[in-house]
Amino acid sequence: MLEQTGSVGALYAKHQSALLKYARGLVSDRSQAEDIVQEAWLRFGRIVADVSPSDPLRYLYSIVRNLAIDYRRQKIRENGLLDPGALETVAEHATDGEAPPDQIMRDRNAVDAVRAVMTAMPEQMRVAFEMHRFDGYKLREIAEHLRISVSMAHVLVSEAVDRCRQHVEWP
Hints:
Layout: H1 5-27, H2 30-50, H3 56-81, H4 84-93, H5 101-120, H6 123-134, H7 139-146, H8 150-167
Helix pairs in contact: 1-2, 1-3, 2-3, 5-8, 6-7, 6-8, 7-8
């Protein structure tokens, strides 16, 4: 049992370098790997206070893996949003704070298309999509709210995004 703080600390001390190596292999960034392992350790500590996992080391590795996946997804989103080419295009078209009329029309059409797609979605999918994309909730929070698994929350959000992509040209 890992109820004693000493045995939990010993587990971490014994496997810290292996966890760092594992995390670094997943994210290819030493600094981020250290942050991931630290966050995993904090989460593991909170969980162990309530529940004693049957295989604590395996559970700790799972936390590291999940955090690394979240980090990589976040980087992909950030890279898509912070595309330098997109910033140049915006700068070229900027006129007294107003977008060109053709851009305004495209944006309105895109918003209308997304609204139509969202209206046609099953309620649970629409709620998951809104929570994730518009309100910034994490999949775990969506799963808790909808009383579904995190995997199912991911499926709902992914499917909603795919449906929107079929009707709208995303930047």
